[in-house]
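Here we describe the complex-level prediction in full. Unlike the single-chain runs in Section 2.1, the two entities below were treated as one system.
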Amino acid sequence: MSWSSLFEFSQAEWIAIRLSLKVAIWAVGTSLPLGVLVALVLARGRFWGRELLDVCVHLPLILPPVVTGYVLLVLLGKNGPLGRLLWNTLGFTFAFRWTGAALASAVVAFPLMVRAIRLSIEAVDRRLEDAAGTLGASPLWVFVTVTLPLILPGILAGAILAFARGLGEFGATITFVSNIPGETQTLPTAIYTFTQSPGGDAGALRLTLVSILISSVALFLSEFVARRVARRVVGL
Amino acid sequence: MNLEVDVYRRLGAFTLEARFSAGAGLTALFGPSGAGKSSVVNIIAGLLRPERGRVVVDGRVLLDTAQGIFVPKYRRRIGYIFQEPRLFPHLTVRQNLLYGRWFTPDSERRERLDEIIELLGIGSLLSRGPALLSGGEKQRVAIGRALLASPHLLLMDEPLAALDEARKSEILPYIERMRDESRVPIVYVSHSVPEVTRLATTMVLLAEGRVAATGTVSEIMGRLDLGPITSRYEAGAVLEMRVASHDDVYDLTTLRSQVGELRIPRIDAGVGTSLRIRIRSRDVVLALKPPDSVSALNLLSGRIAEVRRLDGPVADVRVELDGEVLLARVTRFTIDRLGLVPGRPVFAIIKAVAIDRRSLSQVRSMSDDIDEITL
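The structure predicted for the assembly as a whole is:
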């Protein structure tokens, strides 16, 4: 293996990189509103079954990803009860599609996202919200104008964590939607494929370096933005 | 404007059962810690829900448990200034000031930003973030923010309690101006005698969850029976007097009212200014004959109205001066030795330097060019 060939990406590798980014971005983008809502409910809600919800949300964090992927397959696969319902009513399926990979990433990364957001919600001084209320802001406006800006660093941290976790998703993805080049083959599964085939070392190394690069940039960006937001939030 | 409050709330062993009404100006909810003052204002603001109660502001029913009425806090249009400023950290001073105004319908916007900025002296702070302000500046911005929502009533819950003396005296003149210049009535919670003396138009005295008395500051502070609630260690009566003249040679100011003249260390207030001064009962000496060679400057004559023997060696004496009241704290031994009984004419001697300067306040300005007093 020569050093110059290290940076000659094959078409299949580019596709895997682009697909990985797409899957991770969709996973974070679509689950973020739900993540904020669930974090809010867990931080503030007082209702029966809150502990149960807490456990369910955190389950993918401690379950082996393969188990999570298999549960998704059983529920949402072509023959799963939910999967069949989706297919019959909307003509939509997650099975063996990149959307399935995004769903697997979102589910596995969800607890990390909720945790970060929940912590920031619990740190909000609720007396500020009372003050906003006496100034005429309805609960929804209080949330939009006071709570949301104050928890923005937490939301950002949660999103970045989820993005990084989604990018690295392997077990649930390969179990749920397999490892189809161009459709469900993301960076980790592509690297795995390279290591399983003779002469695949260079490709594995290239994609590994790309993974490290993407994750580092994401972390840097989040640090930078979080610091700017945090300065605003403390009132400097 | 009129505020009617009638609330009942139980919290463990504590029962709040308060009923009072308040009019224009500043109504001080006064009483010791744990008397239920904060609960009352939280109920008025809608932050707290009592078991039973009724709150009416200007004929508008905000709470009536009997009829199942509970107007949520954001529809009450009641300004609230808390002990901590509670400024929004992610907004600038200007954005903080305009926050409540944004939720106020156009037709209801009475207060103007430039006037409020001028009133509170916060013009130089507008573009800053709240974290860089001093405690006093923050509280002034909080006051401005509440006023700019054009509230029908302003609640202030110990707004000065978290500030040091210097910051307090920085803000007090602004609250006085608000009381005198803004038409918004104020309910002011405090357990500080000097603050209440200085600010209150009317006083509502709360003790153990009940209203013990209501009246003017002079009325309440001049009552011996309320002494244990109003000021256990610092009893004293309040007189309203007017600045009569200044003495440049000796640096003294002479105050005058129908009760007589008082000379006090010089203050910076125009002749004719009406002042409220608090005279602590322990600074008053009683004599049966006018003394001729004592160092104290002030001599007022009156008649003993009431003697109240307290636990221990002391007793409080209420002396009626022509329409006003002075309190004196002496020993029970003195009461018996001098034969101080109700109806007996006495002379009250007050040391000029003993006047409680912290409570000295302008009641209303007689000459328009002076609008605050710095002591």
